[in-house]
TrEMBL record:
Protein's recorded name: Metallo-beta-lactamase domain protein
PANTHER family in the record: ENDORIBONUCLEASE LACTB2 (PTHR23131:SF0)
Pfam families, per database record: Lactamase_B, WHD_BLACT
Membership in a protein family: Belongs to the metallo-beta-lactamase superfamily. Glyoxalase II family.
Keywords for this protein: Hydrolase, Metal-binding, Zinc
Domain of life: Eukaryota
All copies of domain Metallo-beta-lactamase, residue ranges: 33-187
UniProt cofactor(s): Zn(2+)
UniProt KW Oxidoreductase keyword: no
A biological-process GO annotation: secondary metabolite biosynthetic process
Amino acid sequence: MASNLASLPEVERLSPAVVRILGGNPGKFTLQGTNTYLVGSGPQRILIDTAEGRPSWIAALRRLLEQEKAHIQQALITHWHHDHVGGIQDLLGLNPSTTIHKFDPQGGQHPIADGQEFEVQGATLTAVHSPGHTTDHVAFVLREEDALFTGDNVLGHGTAVFEDLGTYLQSLAKMKPLVQGRAYPGHGAILHSAPAKIEEYISHRKQREDQVLELLASGDGDSMHAKGGAWAVMDLVKIIYRDVPESLHIPAAGGVSQILRKLEAEDRVVLESEERWRLRDRSSL
């Protein structure tokens, strides 16, 4: 886990209707751990995500429910990654009547549709299908707070990874105007302005794309990195991420590859032999 991350308590009330329970799984990619959220103010609550199944998480959740004199009516899953679904069986062991909802449901789970509403006392949540990080990714608008549970599309620290950049950017654009208030991310501390952070993410991705295009435009036969004007992904990474520890260059290469695939779909770059990329029309830049 990055040393500059703020310390977060295992359980913290963030608003009258939202309590965060950390998953007990801190790490390089999970930050302080996966955030799960108990939502509502009455005896029946909604849980967003179930972390990865660490004993400390279910124990903390059990204590919290006893203190709140509440039980979980529904669990809403933002996406399929293990650190968000791994605690489902523990949750059902705690309360077998809990219904599990997911966009692409698996055995016994209930589907989530884009725009579907889930309601308990003190909280109305609207599902927003927002693929990109994963194809089944869903965010949730909390109407009473004008707030957004962003899942892993937007994090409380750093940037998110994605399976498809073009789809991810479309989802960020879809999410940005939905609320004016805070964001409750899948990892990291809460963000006080969801639209500002989403715009920051969009701008960051545009900056990275511009850097890739500039390097492709600069490549020529005399370049130490480019062969005849074509670049390997890792050579692009070594320049664009030169201030980032080399241990992070491999995941960064995934992001650069996504940029190149997006540009290829837009007919702006060409993939050549030896996994090297060049501009399709260098005179256009």
